[in-house]
Amino acid sequence: MPRSKKGKRGSSKPGGKNGVKGESGASDDDLASDVLSHYSSASESASVLEEGTGGEPVDEQTAQEETEDKLKQCIDNLMDKSAKTRLAALESLRLAFSSRVLYDFLIERRLTISDCLERSLKKGGGEEQAAAATVFALLCVQLGGGDEGEEGFKMLRPILSTILIDGGANVSARQSCARALGMCCYVSAAEEGEDLVKSMTHLESVFMSSYPNREGTLPTPKPGIPGLYSAALHAWALLVTLCPASRLSVLLDLHLPKLQACLESSDVNYRIAVGETIALLVELGRDIDEDFEMEDSDSLCECLKGLATDGNKHRAKNDRRKQRSIFREVLHYIENEDFTEEKIRFGVEGVYIDSWMRRRIYDAFKEILESGVRHHLQFNPLLRDIFGLGAPLILDSGVKASKISRFEKHLFNSAAFKARTKLRNKVRDKRADVM
After folding, report:
1. What is the pTM of this model?
2. Across the beta sheet with 349-353, what order do the strands follow?
């Protein structure tokens, strides 16, 4: 079976003194602004960009070359001495990676980018670490579930884990590392290997700090820590969907009772994260055993009813509304095994979110890709495979089929990508449709 050719270290070189100016002489802030502006309106299906040099239309190939030149300069700027320059480059790459599928461009530069991200994670400040972790998660989504993505994850997993569990590290950096650890481990198809076990253990060590003590009292977290708990719990829940039944049974026994106690948390977003995770775990438990029930389900339902009808005036109105909505869904599922189905539309297609597992996976990609998630559902074979959408549709004759087929061939010929667990296969619902 053919394998995709291994990429080489990028050959691009820093431009100008300290890399502050590239060949065009533009400042880094101008460069970042150009890339951000371009990707804010990018469309994979556009074959012509109207505003070219001198007001003339620019064909797709020319526009692509100009864009790649800007991205190459951003990659060069990741090695700059100025933290401001590196942050601008990371932000430009973040928006670019989330807005388009760039596999062909990145495959030959992945090692250079990974080396730069490793340097930022090891030596950068908190803001730079947070940005680098996010860009790395996006890089894994771009590269897909084959050897290249797994190679990068094995390289950076120990660093992400080190920052995550470091109580003295910047909280925003730890949150970003939690999300990146969960996403990259999921995408790399780590399954029941060492990377999956270690990643889940590190994430557990973070959110288990929110569990009640021996006296049953919940700890009082420092500012910002509930957000870290939520990020770690969500990332862990994503990885739970990869676990085999034998491991799931252990996790259910260990975590469900403690998580139920955390529904009393003072932070609304963490309460919601806990409620969604409980629903997911119960769903997975019922998948193993259709007669599965929590030990104290009556107490859980009473607690959920209270949260679903919470009218505490001390809470913000939007927080109360959001909490009531989520916990009505959780309660309805626990009592009736009924999930409130949602349909995500993109282009002429749509995908159904009809289970807690499917929602957790979709939400995880949405957290990383933000507004670009629909574009990736439309064109990224990784997401299309995970959600059972098949090959990307080609609706515009200006889109070259060769650009898509190369990525498809890489993914679908990859042994690592094919070696998914049965649980992950379950998420590929056959009801994804074309409008």
Report:
1. 0.81
2. 342-346, 349-353, 433-434
